[in-house]
Specification:
This protein has helices at residues 10-18, 22-43, 60-68, 90-94, 119-124, 136-148, 187-203; strands at 3-6, 102-104, 109-113, 126-133, 172-177. The protein is of the alpha+beta class and 209 residues long. A hairpin with a 4-residue loop joins strand 2 (102-104) and strand 3 (109-113). The strands form 2 sheets. It has a 3-stranded antiparallel sheet, covered by helices on one side. Strands 4-5 form a two-stranded antiparallel sheet. Helix 2 (22-43) runs antiparallel to helix 7.
Length: 209
């Protein structure tokens, strides 16, 4: 499962230890990290040097998922361009709530994770990932869909006709999944955490800086 952990430098750690409510600082840090992770899904990534790659069209992995899930036909979104990882919202919601983040008060550690089994593949990417096998049942299912949607038939990278070729029967379909990190700490997160620490310590009359 993907995880992001923040560790403090000596100076900041000393300030937190001496603050009146170090647990409150760690909990607020968790809240900042959660907000950032969930924001990534709305913005398609958070790093200024680049956004996540757009979804593949047609989405072959999604089409195999529709087949294995018993759907009568591929969903329309399998053929739509746009942002990825937002179709169902499950991955975004899988990021731990701030109150459930892992906080180690003794070590001043804050860890945040997602518990979905496929989260790591989206966070870190994966190569040569098996997404399905072209069976006769799959070809029959896809052929029924393409009969009523001939515009999706074209036999090239933008179509699905190649999956009906007899030479594809019993072939494994594998793809590379690009990394789309959503659990990460940006420079903006660091600034927000530093501002928050300063504010909470300023409110603590028992602080020994």
């Amino acid at each position: 499962m993907p995880r992001v952990t923040i560790e403090w430098g000596t100076m900041v750690g000393s300030l937190i230890e001496n603050a009146k409510a170090p647990k409150a600082i760690l909990q607020q840090t968790a809240a900042i990290l959660v907000a950032g992770a969930r924001e990534a899904f709305l913005e398609g990534g958070r790093q200024p040097e680049g956004k996540w790659p757009d979804r593949a069209v047609p989405n072959i992995a999604g089409i195999f998922s529709d087949f294995s899930g018993g759907r009568p036909a591929p969903l329309s979104r399998r053929f739509e361009t746009g942002q990825t990882l937002v179709d169902t919202g499950r991955l975004r919601q899988s990021v731990q709530d701030p109150q459930n983040a892992e906080i180690d008060l003794a070590s001043l550690l804050v860890s945040l994770r997602s518990n979905l089994p496929y989260a790591s593949k989206q966070q870190d990417g994966a190569t040569d990932e098996l997404i399905g096998v072209v069976t006769q049942e799959f070809q029959d299912w896809l052929a029924r869909f393409l009969k009523s949607n001939p515009d999706k038939m074209k036999d090239d990278a933008g179509g699905l006709g190649w999956l009906l070729n007899k030479t594809m029967l019993d072939k494994e379909i594998r793809i590379d999944i690009p990394a789309r990190p959503f659990l990460e700490i940006t420079d903006q997160d660091i600034e927000d955490i530093e501002d928050m620490i300063g504010l909470l310590i300023a409110r603590s009359p028992d602080t020994e800086a």
